[in-house]
């Protein structure tokens, strides 16, 4: 501190008598600011908590609340099973292979539903986003259809396809298409026109503009749509697996409700939550990988 004040005093004296130039004053002031910045980063580094620890704080608080509510008898065990009972039910069902089989069936349905839904939604967004004729034909139809509740289509889907695996996957496909389309289309049309003009000035043709300007600019919107689509897929899976099925997480949930097994019900809900958290982590990884060039506000 004393040394810094002395340097500032010397710099001020130099200004008054004309002996110090601007470059010399800057050179004398830089070491002090660097030392201060280095010291500030060190203090912050000592107090900083790893981000993965902070992200686990929320789920841990939920678990702690759940444990306290069941331990003190605020809610009866018939209404809400304790964490210990849920873990015991999970170990039992995992040992018998029932839980693994149900999880595999659910992942199979969601996987195919996402694959077809993302492909269809992305294709429609490209057609409507790149071409004005495509926008006139596709966008109006998609805005009409997206207001129809997907669950309301379930009886019609059963009439069209039946009650087999195809109907369950088709229901998830319909739910996934709309968030992918809406967010990707908006992202394509939201690319700054000045960037497109700059690309044309540098000699980029239509393929070059799409590859170097429009696609990088629309990737953030697509990832937002993918995050919403993953949530919708897990939500629709619950409804899909309650229609003529004998396996899957939704089937276990429905079967446990009939026998009032709150431990299995909570176990299935916890599995849905963990799968959603894992899906969100995958999208966040894609964002860090594909959008490493973008520098946005990351919070304070």
TrEMBL record:
<dbReference type="GO" id="GO:0005886">
    <property type="term" value="C:plasma membrane"/>
</dbReference>
<feature type="domain" description="ABC transmembrane type-1">
    <location>
        <begin position="103"/>
        <end position="283"/>
    </location>
</feature>
<feature type="transmembrane region" description="Helical">
    <location>
        <begin position="169"/>
        <end position="188"/>
    </location>
</feature>
<feature type="compositionally biased region" description="Polar residues">
    <location>
        <begin position="1"/>
        <end position="23"/>
    </location>
</feature>
<dbReference type="GO" id="GO:0042918">
    <property type="term" value="P:alkanesulfonate transmembrane transport"/>
</dbReference>
<protein>
    <submittedName>
        <fullName>Binding-protein-dependent transport system inner membrane protein</fullName>
    </submittedName>
</protein>
<dbReference type="Pfam" id="PF00528">
    <property type="entry name" value="BPD_transp_1"/>
</dbReference>
<keyword id="KW-1003">Cell membrane</keyword>
<keyword id="KW-0813">Transport</keyword>
<comment type="similarity">
    <text>Belongs to the binding-protein-dependent transport system permease family.</text>
</comment>
<feature type="transmembrane region" description="Helical">
    <location>
        <begin position="143"/>
        <end position="163"/>
    </location>
</feature>
<dbReference type="InterPro" id="IPR000515">
    <property type="entry name" value="MetI-like"/>
</dbReference>
<feature type="region of interest" description="Disordered">
    <location>
        <begin position="1"/>
        <end position="37"/>
    </location>
</feature>
<feature type="transmembrane region" description="Helical">
    <location>
        <begin position="56"/>
        <end position="75"/>
    </location>
</feature>
<dbReference type="InterPro" id="IPR035906">
    <property type="entry name" value="MetI-like_sf"/>
</dbReference>
<keyword id="KW-0812">Transmembrane</keyword>
<keyword id="KW-1133">Transmembrane helix</keyword>
<feature type="transmembrane region" description="Helical">
    <location>
        <begin position="110"/>
        <end position="131"/>
    </location>
</feature>
<keyword id="KW-0472">Membrane</keyword>
<feature type="transmembrane region" description="Helical">
    <location>
        <begin position="264"/>
        <end position="286"/>
    </location>
</feature>
